[in-house]
Amino acid sequence: MTLTLDHGRRVTLTYFIAFIAIGMCVGLLGPTLPHLAGMTGSGMGQIAILFTARALGTMLGSVLSGVLIDRFDGHRVLAAMLLLLAAGLAAVPFSQALVLLTAVMFLLGLAEVSVNAGANTLLLWTHGPASPPWISALHFCFGLGNMLIPLVLVVVLRLGFSFAWAFWLVALYVIVLLVPLLRQASPRPPDLTVGHRTAPPPRDGWRLAIFLLMFGLYVGMEVTFAGWITAYGVLGGMAPADAALLVTLFWLTLSAGRLVAIPLVRRLSPWMVLRGCLGLGLFSTLALHVQWLPLPLVALLFGLAASAIFPTLFGLSNQLMLANGRTTGWIFLACGIGGMAVPSLTGPLLERAGTAAFPLLLVVLVGLLILGLVLLRARVRLASR
User: Membrane-spanning residues where (predicted)?
Assistant: First the structure.
């Protein structure tokens, strides 16, 4: 079935609204980490297991969602995962034992990435080669959700309510999403509709490996900053309420940067956009390390640096590799590994090496991403000869 223009716009809008919810879900863990640690009676080193659990769920969900989206109706798959997501969010405040909370985080990771990978794949099928600006807009919505959720938490706490209400409000929003999603037909793979490509991209295992490495490094870097910047600020002497706003500043410029990237990806090559982002990322992490700039300004700059990396890299992968649910599943599997490995090390590093280890870790991650971009560019040029 070929989607009409109006139908394509409607389903795209639905994915945008869903990505706000996914951004809110992902953004909840960082600012609520001290509350969750207090609820379970855990230290910072122990509570870091939540990042591992969610990332393991992400890894399983990446593989599972790729298979399901390729075989079944995409919107029904997304609806099932949204139901699981809402149930997990509602259960978090009742999971007062660390082992139970860890299990719930695993399920949340599975549901989040399934909606994330599924919506990305369906958006690619909807817009084909014209998808890069739409991908940037989709991930702007993700950043918008990340930016809004710390504000929701601050408002809930200042009104005298428990932090649990932040989870319950997001769960309610997720449930409401089911109505527009199930009312619309799901996009179909390109080979079942009008052809979007004259010829598929060449298969290149090394190219895929470099892409997967870069996606894993980026997500590890983003989750580490968003998940631990509040704790880093508190350990550095900031008041908890002020430290919680650091995440909002990060997501504020990340969202704004993705909005700006929508016209940029039409005018500049993805290589130029990625070089600019990584250059700013290296500057901001070095500034954090040597304390050139105040922490709120570093959060703003780093958010801007990180803003266009994922959507631009994802759009570039669609140009250089065959886009289907399985490939997207591999990408989000790499994201899950990165989101598990790097943030899970950060808690023990902060406890054993002190706060100075946090900015050094970020500098190393940005440096590895720059190396990955150089290798990818060299591989593409070699294949074109």
Answer: 12-33, 45-69, 76-94, 137-157, 163-182, 208-231, 243-265, 298-317, 329-350, 356-376
- Give rounded-to-5 percent helix, strand, coil for the chain: 85, 0, 15
Q: Report how far residue 312's alpha carbon sits from residue 300's, in angstroms, rounded to the nearest whole number.
A: 20
Report the alpha-carbon distance of residue 55 to residue 53 in Å, rounded: 5
Q: HSE on the CB side for 246, CA within 13 Å?
A: 27
Cα dihedral 123, 247, 216, 190, rounded to 10, equals 0
Task: State the burial class of residue 27 (Cβ atoms within 10 Å of its Cβ: 0-12, 13-18, 19+).
Answer: buried
Per-block mean pLDDT, blocks of 10 residues, the chain (385 long): 61 89 85 83 78 82 79 86 93 90 92 86 78 80 81 86 89 90 79 48 75 92 85 79 81 83 80 92 92 90 91 81 70 80 77 81 94 90 71
CB-CB contact of 136 with 262 (8 Å): yes
- Report whether 88 contacts 111 (CB < 8 A): yes
Query: What is the torsion angle, in degrees rounded to the nearest 10, for the CA atoms of residue 52, residue 226, residue 112 and residue 152?
Result: 130
Q: DSSP letters of 272-340?
A: HHHHHHHHHHHHHHHHHHHT-S-HHHHHHHHHHHHHTHHHHHHHHHHHHS--SHHHHHHHHHHHHHHHH
Widest Cα–Cα separation across the chain: 65
**Burial degree of 276 (CB within 10 A; 0-12, 13-18, 19+):** middle
10 Å CB burial of residue 266 (0-12, 13-18, 19+) is exposed
Separation between Cα atoms, residue 362 and residue 39, nearest integer Å? 29
* Angle (deg, nearest 10), helices 98-127 and 49-71: 40
- For position 202, what pLDDT does the model report? 59
Q: What is the pTM of this model?
A: 0.73
Structure tokens at 136: 């940037």
What gap in Å lies between CA 5 and CA 146, rounded to an integer? 30
